[in-house]
């Protein structure tokens, strides 16, 4: 049965960054126009309908990069890359053309961790939006390499369902953060879709499109995005962030004060998100997590984590492992 859908809902689906034709073919749900008698805009109501009506099979179809990449310039640019690392870098650069999403990418030993956050509430509370963004990244790597690449880990606050878990090939985790972890070896595999000629042709247009959008993101969101990329490298002071933006440290402080915050508050926010995320990875010792979050010694990390959460890092790990059944808790308790 074909989906009967209004032009307004069609625009909503297009604003998600996916071609309406393939999406409507997948969304084989009985939504009729009488359910769409309000003004459709990019708000919580739009995503609420998608969250309620779309099945996981339909959600997976919306994530198939091989279907929609030619309609979505950032993904077209990503698939033209030489490998997954370059593809993710291009996608994070032009993510504004897809929606109010921020992607932080940082090194974690032999892996790369991708943090996904949103600048608008209607996306923050949408399972459909988050899972589509996560799974599309996996589809991007698989489409480019023509290999069944599996992430090392993936997590969010949402349940993934049997069909999605089967597609992922790993067990998703319940997490405070929205993240994916890929092996570096998988991300440096060459893309069979690499096309430097196409990239040279579309790059000027993407840049101009970004400038024409004139998106007014908060400066604090920009600071957080930069910190996610800098912390693991060890150079994440105010000056380092200001240099990335191309302004002075004093100007950066002034802009943050205008938003009612400070650099220290933004740094704490990012460190907390990373810590809550990384502590769920039992392959990392607490000392390693401490280093990745930017602390010089584990004792300082313990004190900070207790201040942030009211519990010890070990208790938090225990609590999260109980939620994610199937782990060997002895591994957690024997970590130094």
Can you give a write-up of this model?
With 336 residues, the protein is α+β, with helices and mostly antiparallel strands. The protein folds into three domains: 7-56, no CATH class; 65-196, no CATH class; 203-333, Homeodomain-like (Arc Repressor Mutant, subunit A, Orthogonal Bundle), CATH 1.10.10.60. 56% of the residues lie in helices and 8% in strands. It has 20 helices and five strands. Strands 1-2-5-3-4 form a five-stranded mixed beta sheet. α13 crosses α16. The chain is globular and about 50 Å long. The N and C termini lie far apart (57 Å). Mean pLDDT is 77; it is low at 1-9, 16-44 and 326-336.
- Give, in order, the helices and strands: HHHHHHHEEHHEHEEHHHHHHHHHH
Radius of gyration: 21 Å
Number of domains: 3
Total number of helices: 20
Number of strand segments: 5
Which percent range describes the beta-strand content?
Answer: 5-15%
Main beta sheet: 5 strands, mixed
